[in-house]
Batch of 4 targets.
Target 1
Amino acid sequence: MDDLARFDLDFHSVIFDRRSGYTHILDPVAGFVLGLVAESGQRRSDILDQAAQDLECDETVDLSAHVDRALDQLLALDLVVMNDP
Amino acid sequence: MNVGTLSPSALAARLQGPGLPLHLGPFRILFVLRVRQALAPFRRLYADFPVIEDDRMVDSVVSCMTAADPDFPFRRAAISRIDGRFHAATRFLGNATPSLEWTLNWSIATKAHWFLIVHAAVVADANGAVVMPGGSGSGKSTLAAALAAGGGRLFSDEFAIIDPAPDRAAVFPCPRAISLKNESIAVMRRRAPQRMLDREFPRTGKGTVGYFLPSAEDVARQHETAVPRLIVFPRWRAGSPPLLTPLNQVDALVAMIRNSVNFDLLGEAGVRTMTALVGQCPAYVFEYDDLDAACACLARTVGQGAPGHGPT
């Protein structure tokens, strides 16, 4: 996480990756999940548990799907490393 | 000592000889101008700019001189250089003035990376600065000239020069003359004839070019920064009433990055500065036709600020 500089903008997160020099704009969910990875470790199950604790979601919302999608996005951007697939 | 206080012959001797170093906003530029036709326009364009007495350190040497045309060696051309390196040639010696101006633009855009630079016009009033990014044809220069003619403080026609300080984005002035093209020249001659350079430059790569001059006060205050209050992306559209369409901050950030000339070179400082700038200014796409209505609309909007964006 020390490799990432983070700036907030209108609920989005602007991320500067110091390793690659790339700038990314993350939507609110991806920005939130990126913060969870820093706090909760590198396992999807831990991150999902933490997200469930932190967020009050309508029962119709599939939180797991949102978190998975955000994690896939962060992995594709090489912003996080996960210990489980 | 200002350029205008030098006699024409003394100015010519400096420009055609060792060069004339000027303070242009935050920049120190050494001009060398060995094209006779461009001397008088230079004297008007830079009349109020101060000459640097100690010229040992400059940021850039911008020159224009006659030489053999690189394409047609039998003909003389005006060759513009940056720090001695070729930049542009114009076969019309009478167009050495716009060639020199564009070369200076290029020099700033490619060298001044201690600032975040956005391709934009900037005009300020007591409430702060309006940053107007846009490419050629967007109407930003005409709008900037109209705002300046109406009492606004001209910062720049070409670049928003932004201090990448870690706290709050501030813009530096570099109040050079505004380059107007084609129909815009007549429009501004009608509105502010005293602010227009008397001669025009036809047959340039951008059509006919004319210049709207900075006021003496614009130049006298060229070291006073301002806080940006508003970002507008001008779009001149025939018949359109002044119409401000809000941009969300993410779209504004992306549009500002696209208009920046050196965002990617500044790394983290560029991201931090650009994010701060967009965060502190409401941003709009601004469609307009009538200049009076457009100026009034912008003045009103800057004065009112936006929720969470009031003057400090």
Target 2
Amino acid sequence: MDLLRRLRFREAVVDTIRRFFKGRGFLEVEVPLLSPHPIPEANIKLFAVDGGRERLYLLPSPELYMKPLLAQGLERIFTICPSFRQGEKGRFHLPQFTMLEWYGAGRDYSWLMEMVEELLPFVAQEASSMLPRGLTIDVTPPYPRLSMRRLFQELAGWDPWLEPNEERFDLDLVERIEPSLPDDRPVFLVDYPGWQGSLARSKPNREDGVERVELYLAGVELANGFSELTEKEEQRSRFERELQRMGEARGLPDRFLDAVDRLPPCAGMALGVDRLVMLLAGLGSVAETRPFSTFQ
Amino acid sequence: MYDSSDLRKGLKITIDGEPYIITEFQFSKPGKGQALYRCKLKNMITGYTMDRTYRSGDKFEPANLEEVRMQYLYNDSEGYHFMDLKTYEQVSISGEQLGEAVNFLKDNMEVDVLFFEGNPIDITLPNFVELEVVDAPPGEKGNTATGATKPAKLETGYELQVPLFINEGDVVKIDTRTGEYIERVKK
């Protein structure tokens, strides 16, 4: 596909996503891309910006500003915005990429999975009409919901619920779990150990971990969602632990924590738009879905 | 020293004292996890390939490699001998190490010899070489459709498919990257 056709295709996918959410009563919101107090996440390196009196950070996802809107009573919101992560570059990564995030009040992560099972076929139908040879992936629902714990026990031979070993978890995920996922269909990885979802709500039985779901399509990680944690003190202590791990002198996002206190039960999901476009179009990298891939 | 963020396809690094080239590379960051750098690496001496996954903060020694223009002299039981045209210094490399390249080596041919920490490990041939045909039995009668070929043997012992009009004594041009016949140079 030449540049114009790739960009036309991308435009159609993004338009279709908007139509999907607006047709279901969601409000599209624009949120700031900068903040002095981002959510502490040890594995995400941020771009720091000179903000005059204070240092600002380009946000790695819109979550910081989306949840306070839920706390103010908005019930169904979505945004499609640029997100920034320093040092992430590869076939499936760019330091600036586009994120879709949506939230629903009074919902949990099973609702997120149902939404995905409606969203992907909706977008795929529009997309396939623009591809001379159609789609190479099959997004007919329902999608298998694989227990993360069982996957680890069967494919990696250990239980991350009993052994909080992050290095081993990531390595086995990449080397053993991901390669075993279907390469032409979506699949959900469901429920994570407690130490693997800093913003996710615990399962009814705390020892079962947290209500987190990851969507993989054609073996590529496409979206991450939680039943959101709504307890302020629990969230604060998880953030403090994360900051300690990072060893960085950065303040806690106090306003965000105040919002967590007022959150209704809710669920939210973040989906990589560039990856979705790439997989639908059968392209080899996320860079091919964008007019510019770097800052040069 | 390189660090993980320098890793990319084509980069040459030293692992356990041997030079490796990265033949496939993939940046990975599973879930909200740490950055992982997945590499397929080829040992530049043995040709053996392996998979390795590296993390942020890992360090790598660049492979100390150098290319020198040399002339091929001859081969014997010790291997294939090359001479530096400036210093007249001679080195030898085993046939096993050279692999397919021995099919295209002709006396006095100039090649680039690759050294790793002072030891010769490989050569880079010119893209095209001209070699004499030493055996080319006539093609089967009736099989004269355009593009028909027959087997032939070159002065280096290399055997390949050539057009039917090629005879013993002809000189042919070969693409060393594919090992295929390009054209007849002279009768």
Target 3
Amino acid sequence: MSFFKSARCKHNNRDNAGIKQTRTVGLCLGAAMILASCASPQVETGGISVEAVAPRIGGNTAILQSITAQERAHLQLIATNFVATLVQIPAMQSGSATLQINNPATAFGNAVVRALEEAGFGLQRVSADQGQNYVSYSKRLSETESGLVTDYTLAVGRVVLSREFSVEAGAIYPSSLMNIDGVRSTDNIALADEIFSEQGGDGNAFISGIQLAGSAGPDLIVRTVDVNSFDAVPLEKRSTQESVFEKARLRHRAQNAKRSLPDLQLFDKYRRTVLIFDNNSTQVMGRSNKLAVRLMIREFSDDDILVIKACQDADGSNDASLNRAIRVEQELAGFGVPNSSSYIAPCSRSGYRHTSDDSPSPVELIHYRAKKS
Amino acid sequence: LIDQIPATDRVMAEDLAAVAAQIFDPVGTTLQINAAIEDPLRDFFITKFSEYGFGIQYVSADQGSNFVSYARQASTEGNRRNIRFSLTIGAVVMARDYLLVSNNRVAPASRFNLSGTRATVTVDEKASANKRIDDAAFSAVTYIASLDLDTQAPVISLVTQDLVSQIASGPAVTTLQGVNSSNVEVNNLFYSQSSTFSSLLDSRDRVDRQIIVFGNDSMILGNTNKLLIDQFVANRLGKDDLISLVGCSNGPTALAVGNEGLALGRAQRVTEALLARGVARERILDEGCWAPVSAGEKFPSRGVVLELWREQS
């Protein structure tokens, strides 16, 4: 067990409200040393229904009924935490990755499959462990010096996520860093740890951070998150699983969109089309736009790139247009265009559209071909 | 929710799902399904697809190359109650008419109409408590043109340096490019040395060639040409072949659409005939060759050149 896994942080520390960040080990070590008995925390201890955590298809509702509503809520939080991390791993882009699963036989398995469904992964039921992206998961209970700790693991193909969690007065918190195996880098991955704070606490704290393949690299960032009673969010107002995944995906795509365009001098402009979205807010492309993408992709080859120009906002901001560009990028990925070959162009700040303009919104898609050397 | 579905709808949905499982390889295909729609029939389709082994992906809008949609249209004709059930996956549309015999029994009233695919489908159906077989001839498929032929995709312009240079060099006698039946801009092959789609054909061999001859200043296909296209599709077209198609009009014409309209119109007419036989639009590369003078041996004066391109083995 690595140092960080054993450095479980659960302490009462009202003076350290908020989040503190530090590089490497110092703070976590401190946190581990300040282990203190917990006074009865005033936490929201609500639970969730079987339907909220059961997979849409192939779920085992009997096993979910056999646990309490609160335990279901805890499993949902853990599964959300894992899957929100997974959707930010480049090889696991939910828009284009299909995962192979067995029908879940455990409560945690049900929660994981439902979370993968909500995250937009393609899920294929298999009879054994077929497939490159076979999903497996485990839950192990350990008696440690810090009390009972449960170690959860989610593996998809070669990517393995694992983290320990512990229950304190009805709320569940991470008690280790998120360990990720099977990826080259954890840069640009942000943990969805705020969902644990929404349970509230009584001066509790947990550690947050990612370590790659169980080692404490020089760029390791660890923070402690203090959770107080005022952090509690009523059950009905907590972040939904869907919103957590959407936020994680958008964050990843926004990071991806920041990649600078390659030198276009090395390419020839080959084809161009203008896709028309019905209005400024829709994500529906429609049959005609999809047909155009299908026909345009037909001529795409490995050295080519596709540039998406969507920013048409009057005020120069690009939120709505970025969403449309991302939608087109998703469509390209759905047709097999690698993420590394499609680029979202920066906002061109064209000013002819008034902010109240809800007329059809254009997205320009340009196909560039590498110049023959 | 699935329990709420009438037995008749189950029969029809099962029929279409069984056809889909023959057109697409379930193990290698992930279907995209809108998560926002709460519909028992959608869930029933998901269950069936999942049983066949398809990957299922929930999406928020209409994302994906295999986006699934379906429609159930009821109509009455005198005392007859008819239902047209259709299932669309990506560019493939499957549809069939049914007669509602009673509240819990249907009878197929047509063959399965398939568009966007030439996949071989075997229909092996038996009568059951909820399904009556009135006519064994309906246990088959018919390949038809896409029901959404009118869907006009945005124009896909061609921007090549050659083209830009030619336009910059001054007005030409005839246009140098036009828009084909799929709204994709293509070069006028009278002036161009190679197909606009040549990059798609690099890794393929030409395995067959057929010329469809049209009447003077005419875009009418005629029975003989229809028969030739039937044979071309039925006997020579392979599963993953591409069809290159060049509509030609070289020589004087009295039509207002001119040589360009005539050439691309002929190409469109043959494209429609191929679509009507279930050939997917993306497998057809239609172009044109037009000029007020003869192209010599290179292209026919008033015909369409069909070529079959097969992946190199």
Target 4
Amino acid sequence: MSDVLAEAPEVEEAPPDYLHAGGGIKGWLLTRDHKRIAVMFYVLILVMLLLGGVFALLLRTELLSPNALVMSADTYNRMFTLHGVVMVFLFMIPGIPSVFGNFLLPLMVGAKDLAFPRLNLLSLYVYTAGAVIVLGATIWGGADTGWTFYPPYSTTTDSTVLPVTIGVFVLGISNIMTSLNIIVTTHTLRARGIGWSRLPLFVWALYATAIIVLLATPVLGMTLLLVGADRLYHFGIFDPARGGDPVLYQHLFWFYSHPAVYIMILPAMGVISETVSTFSHKKPSSYLAIAVSSVGIAGVGFFTWGHHMFVAGMSELDAGIFGSLSMFVALFSAIKVFTWVATIYRGRVRFDTPMLYFFWFLFLFVFGGMTGVAVATQSLDVHWHDTYFIVAHFHFIMVGGTLTAFLGAAHYWFPKMFGRLYSEKMGLATSAAVFLGFVLTFFPQFLLGNMGMPRRYYSYPARFQWLNVLSTGGAYLLAAALVLTLLNLLIALRWGARAGSNPWRARTYEWETPSPPPTHNFLAPPVVDRGPYDFDLSEEEARARTEAP
Amino acid sequence: MLNEVLRRILFLPVQGSTLAQRIDALHYAVILSTMAGAFLVTLAGGYLLLRYRRRLPEPAIPNVEAGSQLSPPLKVAALAALAALFLAFWAVGVRQYMELRVAPEGAMNVYVTAKKWMWKFAYPEGARSIGVLYVPAGRPVRLVMTSRDVIHSFFVPDFRVKQDVVPGRYTTVWFEAVAPGRYEILCSQYCGTGHSTMRGEVVALSAEDYARWLRGAPEPAQIAAPAYTPPALGRPDAAIPLQPSSLVRQGQRVAAEQGCLRCHTLDGTPHIGPTWGGLYHARVPLEGGGEATADEAYLTESMMDPLSKIHRGYPPVMPSYLGKLDGPETAALVELIRSLADVPPAREAP
């Protein structure tokens, strides 16, 4: 990365930016600078997105035909397991916090670095180890359990389940390290003048996410260890042949994995809150509503896991309680959506690529969220459960929500991270193509689910074929659009125009330092005398109020 | 009428059970209102984005409208209305869910055993069937289900019912078919290699036909045309070499009914189990060393006690058919395999 910008003219006196801080390869691999660690995470996470995407394309290709086409049933089963594990544990969960959170949190609270820089570097290496273990397992055949690892299938199948669960366990450790760093940094390293009500909303989202990670991940770790014990030592926790209970596993698994949905979507909501405010050039219509609903989602999200199990053999009373609590998540999400829309009202909207991504997010997230209300309605879920309706629903939230926000963040903070501007025209065009490809891929899957096509089906009755072909076509379009998006950013990395410190005229504190920022983030420790969205101040005044008098 | 139009627009299957139509009514209400809400929010957002777009050249003055927002009572009212709507969905959904879960008094029981990758049904009168569930139309039927291996899920889209089938416990599901007909059964909980072919069908008969079927009569002609044929596993079905022997044809029928073809192919392609193409009198390598000749004795033994001599390279998953195949059926299967002796072995499955 440092070579790419090697011939950039140095500014006199000012310390070099973090990309030019020197140290060679070692300066990167052993760095304690959160920005360099974030950039390394960025590269790894994009590789994972690419891998997960390739697996998805292979799956979609196989589904062009109701019968065998390019792979066997066993290969298909391993492929969707790999797709799920890679996308969930290697891309979605760490994606926004480890890349943009890592990079921006210290800048947004006016700190020199995260609270535990060495722990941050360790989390990168632990993540790498987890990725190697998960992907390495495919060399020994790979697991065919699905990313949900339901026993007794996972405890009896011949495929290599253990390395994958161990890999996921290791990834959880990395995730916990990052989250500890986020929480401690938010509590202890805020610059003078940045109180809790002056934190950018992205920080609130990261903070709420980190709390969920700390509380939920250990449960997943224990559960996966118990699956391992069942496999290796015939422990019998989940194996009915030894008196165990497979439904117990589902409770434990979803106790983590439902909150994990919010681990994936909350940081994305944080990105959206920043985007909509900056590009509307206006304060969020209610800072309090967005911050509180983040924490509200984090809280209620812990008590809705049972809605994954309406047909699993749970008592009717439990199912009713879980169903009603699930509706409250929708309510908190609605508060956020209304606040975003109201923020645009009487703003001065600048329609750049990140704002277009906001608009796609708005449509896809609301659409996906509303289908969430539909599947939380129990008698309807009985028909939809484990069909493509569910597949479409969670892809609307995870791809339509989280990936869209990830791409929005990649464009919004690109000038800050790399000091360059990407091609706005290409940005808008690729963004539109991503949206089209996405809708074409996943909308037909809602209809497939209504028709009754179960998920994880290698072959299917012929009446489902034309919708599957449509969906596969959309997947190819989506893949092409993502590749073009990446190219646009890579080209800008080398040839983009200089960005300047604040190209979007934003007010959050990370824009008050040069782009890319110097190693210690700010030229002098900031002393802040304003909020993060004070658009009623002129740019000069806003800057003056972040400097020591 | 409206029901039918909406059902087709939403791609829902036919409403084959007594509960289906009411569940679909809730479906329409929920989907139409939530989708309307989603489009409304998006349209509002899109309108505001255009209405308040920044016009060039930008004024340098700071945004004095920065704090403007809707009045608080209005927001609270909107949220309360939304909460009421969601809770109304929930309340109706819970009531229907209870109806789906609790079978009416006097429902007839059928016992269901699921295993990789077939459905087995046992009727109180002593009849048994595999893959096809025969029920009387117009009478509530309660299924008492368990699994022999992993979790499966009994799903009949036309009935809007689904229930996981869990090893080590019994789960139940009930339905009442409104009319005689054929309704597809799909396994909807992932269960391994044959998950997507673990299908079957419910055949709803009139009360008289059902009584006749219990007495051993074949299913009546008007619904005998098979809507469901066991799909080819692994690769599209190659032409089955037919011989003009009624026993071979009978063997094909038995193989389809008993689920043999879910694991064994006829065209020389290895699958979950060894192919039957070219198997007859072939030398079979055995797990644990040695080999056997696939003669009538070996084939019969493999049906009745499949774990005693395992074909090397295949998982020991075949269930025993002891007591499930009678003499003529066993003979018919052997005859079918013999008729396939000249099928050349295919290359490895892709």
